[in-house]
Write a structure and sequence with these properties.
17 helices
Length: 560
């Protein structure tokens, strides 16, 4: 073992040293050494031998004759628990297990500058600043100041500021992960987890693990998993007892329930609840610190748990505000689109309709029967378009207000499609467009009759509108898995580019355009179709190639 080899080398050096040789401490102030309130000693430079120590240093196990204050523990002096942790976590700094004291490092022990402060070092589970004072060419006074508590406060304050700053630019799950990382660092833990407790106080959901836990120690399924509290193990004792719990001897707990496959082994753990009022909102846990958890660790994790929850609450409130703002923007966009349709798209057809009536009223006496017939056909087409637009406006308005009747029933799909196409046929004939069907007579759909008619009618009107004279439209339907019916309306029209496809069902972006013969298009019909299909639990989508054509697909339940 490396530790045993180091021990052997240092023992040989110590045995070769005669600390009384030429009385090296002659003339030095032993009162100064004993009066220092810190571990202190005189060290000889040429061979780095401890010449004398004060009482505080002696109580820490430092003895005259020691070599450079480095004394390695023999393997048999390491506790079984420390051996377990060392075996589980080979990346842990070995000095946490096999160095008894290390106030200085061999490459930093001697400085030519009197009073130089060597960087902080870790020993005896504490943090120290070490100082060297040159008292002669060959002798240094060396002492160490324990700064563990000051350092802890400084690290906590830094971590708090860091988390506030981190929260500004990272989502909630990353914030929770970073909180666990900070808690691990300050407590010396090796694993960490953060759960939210559900509103019913009976279940909890894993929100995140620490980075180290996910990377090195835990392969079990986790994030997003739900646990019933009554069935969970000792790690939810803090919920049952409504206060933080420390399990420093995890293996001895009689009520533990074991760990799932891939879960990190647990030596010890500390779990803290976040309590607001009468409810537990979350629990935060850390584990596998090399030494026992204590009250200081509890204070640290409690602070971070509360801090993370408060930041999380703030972020959730900010997210809720953002969602409401987005919803308001959407509502405003829809309102603007609604008014635009009324002011422009509805006004245009009405103007044309009124122009035809004026022409008929003022010139009827001088018109031939064929001319009157032509104007009558134009009036009927204009009236039909106006009626369809008004129907869509009213239907969309009712959907937005939640007052649209919804009464799905089982019905033969082919007959319903033919009924919906009745108003479309005339426009198709005028453009010499052929309409075909590929629907089984026995195919059933479970749908609201009025909504199904509106979907078929709007998709078919669109197909006619954007298909050139002499084109083709095919309406098909087939059964799909999961008790669904897939219906499609395919045309040989002008198709769409990707921008139009991506924004086809959005009211806040104007992607409408005129048909192949100048027909008016508002885009509202497609949005209404999407709402109706989704009301049935279905999906509406489109495939399109410019100058080739488009196919609109939607699904409906095949049965109740």
């Amino acid at each position: 073992m490396q530790a045993n080899a180091a021990l052997k080398i240092e023992t040989e050096k110590n045995n070769a040293v005669n600390i009384n040789d030429q009385n090296p401490l002659s003339g030095f102030n032993e009162t100064l050494l004993s009066s220092l309130p810190y571990p202190a000693m005189y060290i000889r430079r040429k061979d780095r031998v401890v010449l004398a120590v004060n009482k505080i240093a002696a109580e820490l196990g430092v003895k005259p004759g020691g070599y450079c204050w480095r004394e390695f523990q023999k393997e048999e002096n390491i506790s079984e628990e420390e051996k377990k942790i060392a075996a589980l976590y080979p990346d842990v700094v070995p000095s946490q297990f096999n160095i008894k004291c290390a106030f200085c490092r061999s490459d930093q022990c001697f400085s030519e500058v009197a009073g130089q402060n060597i960087p902080e070092l870790h020993a005896f589970g504490q943090i120290w600043n070490t100082y060297w004072i040159k008292v002669s060419d060959d002798i240094f006074l060396h002492y160490a100041v324990n700064i563990t508590e000051d350092n802890q406060i400084e690290r906590i304050n830094y971590a708090r500021l860091h988390l506030f700053d981190f929260a500004e630019n990272h989502p909630l799950d990353e914030l929770l992960e970073e909180t666990l990382n900070q808690a691990e660092t300050i407590t010396g833990s090796l694993i960490g987890f953060f759960h939210f407790v559900e509103e019913d106080q009976k279940n909890l959901t894993l929100q995140n693990w620490s980075t180290r836990t996910k990377k090195d120690y835990c392969r079990a399924e986790g994030k997003g998993m739900n646990y019933e509290i009554t069935l969970a193990g000792v790690w939810v004792d803090c919920i049952r007892e409504r206060h933080a719990v420390i399990h420093n001897d995890y293996s001895s707990l009689e009520h533990k329930k074991g760990l799932p496959p891939g879960h990190a082994a647990v030596i010890r753990e500390m779990v803290v609840p976040v309590i607001r009022g009468s409810k537990i909102m979350a629990i935060v846990g850390v584990g596998n610190k090399p030494t026992n958890y204590n009250e200081k660790d509890l204070e640290v994790v409690t602070l971070f748990a509360d801090l993370a929850w408060d930041i999380a609450e703030r972020k959730k409130a900010e997210l809720e505000i953002k969602l409401k703002n987005d919803e308001l923007q959407k509502i405003n966009a829809e309102k603007d689109k609604f008014f635009s349709i009324i002011a422009h798209d509805l006004r245009g057809p009405f103007s044309g309709f009124m122009g035809l009536t004026d022409l008929l009223a003022e010139g009827c006496a001088n018109m031939t029967s064929d001319e009157i017939q032509k104007i009558g056909e134009l009036l009927r087409g204009s009236a039909s378009n106006l009626f369809g637009l008004l129907e869509n406006l009213l239907s969309w308005s009712r959907m937005q207000r939640g007052i649209m009747p919804f009464e799905p029933v089982s019905q033969v799909l082919k007959s319903k499609v033919e009924e919906g196409m009745a108003l479309v046929i005339e426009g198709a004939l005028k453009k010499e467009i052929t309409i075909g069907y590929d629907i089984s007579d026995e195919l059933i759909a479970f749908a609201d009759s009025n909504m199904l008619l509106a979907i078929i009618r709007n998709l078919a009107f669109n197909a006619v509108k954007f298909t050139p004279r002499g084109g083709n439209i095919t309406i098909s339907a087939k059964e799909r898995a999961n008790h669904l019916v897939e219906i499609s309306v395919k045309d040989t029209g002008i198709g769409m580019d990707q921008f139009k496809i991506d924004n086809l069902f959005r009211l806040d972006i104007n992607s409408s355009r005129k048909g192949t013969e100048g027909e008016i298009s508002t885009g509202l019909g497609l949005i209404l179709c999407k709402d109706f299909v989704e009301k049935h639990g279905g999906k509406l989508w489109v495939e399109s190639i410019e100058n080739i054509g488009s196919t609109f697909y939607f699904t409906l339940p095949a049965k109740e």
